Amino acid sequence: MSVPTNARGHLRTALWLAEIGLPVLPLREGKEPFGNCPACTRSACGDRPHMKAAGPCQCPAPCHAWGAATTDPDILTGPAWARAWRQAGAVAYHPGGAGLAVVDLDDAEAVAWARQTLPATTVVPTTRGEHWIYRGAMQSKNGVRPGVDVKSTMSYVRWRGPGAGTMAALPDVVRGLVVKEPSARQTRPTIVAVPAGGGQCPHRSPVYLERGIAMAEQRITAATEAIHTTVYGTFLAVLSAHGRCGCLTEVHTGRLFTAAQGKGESVRHCEDAWTNARTALGM
């Protein structure tokens, strides 16, 4: 069966983006990723989609939304992806996987705000607004202000062209957009574990840290009620023990987020709980 012209165009674009280091995936019409295959539906495969395909799932199909994004040309051109390319309406990329962050401005007011507030960088026109792209990965979050989303790790962005302008380093003003103001409940005094030994980190033993993350995953997975509270409390405990000494990595955060999402939490709920826990601890 021959590949339709538009599919060839999407695949060529995807291969070019992969060559320059952007992990890519096909999108259906309507900018949505392709759904999981039957073997992977409802995480039956034991996948870890929010660790960028780092889990045990070896499915060759473009499953798990942004978690399927890849730079491997053999995967992109393989038979498992052929049907997706025939049905694709666009190409997307995972900015966090390439060390990038995208400020997605959805309307004219948001664009005007960015031009007055953000440092100049590469700008890509979109249907209703603009994408401002910076060097540096960060937490993704939608609705950081009216008409503004931040897309980086655990997210995808539709490819709309290379844009114009010199790409700048990710500024603090963009990082600050994802910080949520704590509620009165969350600003109560909190006892924080402080590393002993004159500020030296006592947790750099891989075994100690792994055990702590595994216990946190188990606590979330075992919860049968009050899921929101359990997730927030677990995040708070992990950050209290490991958040001040540089032990935690994005991989650890991804494992906790995956456990929470396995209990029905959305990505946004996970991000909010993590941010609120950091704020409560003064981080």
Helical amount: 25-40%
Q: Helix-strand pattern, N to C?
A: HEHHEEHEEEEEEHHHHH
Terminal Cα separation, in Å?
A: 56 Å
Number of helices: 9
Q: Structurally, how many domains make up the residues?
A: 3
Please, could you describe this protein's structure?
With 283 residues, this protein is α+β, with helices and mostly antiparallel strands. The chain folds into 3 domains: 5-93, no CATH class; 96-154 and 169-177, no CATH class; 185-280, no CATH class. It is built from 9 helices and 9 strands. Strands 3, 4, 5, 6, 7 and 9 form a 6-stranded mixed sheet that branches. Strands 1-2-8 form a 3-stranded antiparallel sheet.
Keywords summarizing the entry:
single chain, about 280 residues, alpha+beta, 3 domains, six-stranded mixed sheet, three-stranded antiparallel sheet, 9 helices, 9 strands, globular, disordered N terminus
